[in-house]
């Protein structure tokens, strides 16, 4: 019987959904080990033992896997920002595709083959948004990232998945804080001033946001001077006020300290104006590929309507508007809805309207109005759709539902509900590596309303006309 603090020898056979290596003891107990690679033979210390499984800590690799590489980041073993710097990129892609298939089979109940996964155009420095917590190390104010599953700060100078500009601006904020004697916020005592530094980059340059627990900052002119010196392409410095206790990052109030209060970027042929509160995908090149695929699956005909639930600042909505008569976008965040309306006007798109409401409530209201979209696109947060949204979608009975997901487990659950309540079945599925070197994976799934029970998945591209002829 396995016991805590016991050392065991394992051969890693695969991975969990979170990317932990999975091996088995001689008695057959599954052991989950962070930092392991499929094919490793290793020694692990059992740190937590349950009846049928255990968690282990990697002690040493006895025989390395051909999929293992030397991590290229000095804090990889400590920092929680990346999960897979010890794996080849090819192995990372394979395990993410396996994760999607496992979710669709185990949670969704669909018989699927391994989906195609689209690699990211950039694996390093790909994030257009960075959020760094601030802390103290040896009496100095530093920026960094948290250890996995904790709020213990790991100081960094640079980060392999962030840009040089983001790290340079964070370093400038730390220098300013030291000069003016600003304090760092303490989550335990709810005292102190500075909480996080956020940097967003776009076609218009960079935007720096300092998140603090007060309405003003000391020596704001010096902050601006150091930030502009660090990154000449800086477009604006924003103060975001967050006085709430706990670990929420952004507050609801922003004040422009210097420069522009918004940042401009171009995506899928449209210009978008972004505030610090706007949701926007962090991997620009990969987002272009994902949205193009989602739009090709949606394939609305020119005289029909489409519905975009969880529309954010209107990125997918405007993409759909080029292809159909009318698009309704729904988003619960007021600032995002205002951004979406302004973005539509900026791009001269007149066949869209936006509702500020919960997705389920808005879908119910539109269903009662008799709004009948040919296609509904959903891009929900990690928790997925709520039951009201699923029922409203089924009530409107579109020919197709395009599901864009940042969590394949909740997507698989929702796909099962859409089949049970509305007769929808997945007919196309593709994964996109939106977040290289982390365990997250983005997925796009096309569900088509069936007359017969149909639970298998094909990955061949199918346009709307093909589906209409073969339903």
Please provide a written account of the structure.
With 471 residues, the chain is an alpha/beta fold. The chain folds into three domains: 7-68, Beta Barrel (OB fold (Dihydrolipoamide Acetyltransferase, E2P)); 105-119 and 283-469, Vaccinia Virus protein VP39 (Rossmann fold, 3-Layer(aba) Sandwich), CATH 3.40.50.150; 129-263, OB fold (Dihydrolipoamide Acetyltransferase, E2P) (Beta Barrel). 26% of the residues lie in helices and 30% in strands. The protein has helices at 89-106, 164-180, 220-230, 284-298, 315-321, 334-346, 359-369, 387-396, 408-422, 464-469; strands at 7-11, 14-15, 21-24, 30-33, 41-49, 53-63, 116-118, 129-137, 140-146, 153-155, 194-202, 205-212, 234-241, 253-259, 263-267, 270-274, 305-309, 326-331, 352-356, 375-378, 400-405, 424-432, 442-449. Strands 7-22-23-21-20-17-18-19 form an eight-stranded mixed sheet, with helices on both faces. It has a seven-stranded mixed sheet with strand order 10-9-8-11-12-13-14. Strands 1-5-6-4-3-2 form a six-stranded mixed sheet, with no helix packed on it. Helix 8 links the parallel strand 20 (375-378) and strand 21. It is globular, with a radius of gyration of 24 Å.
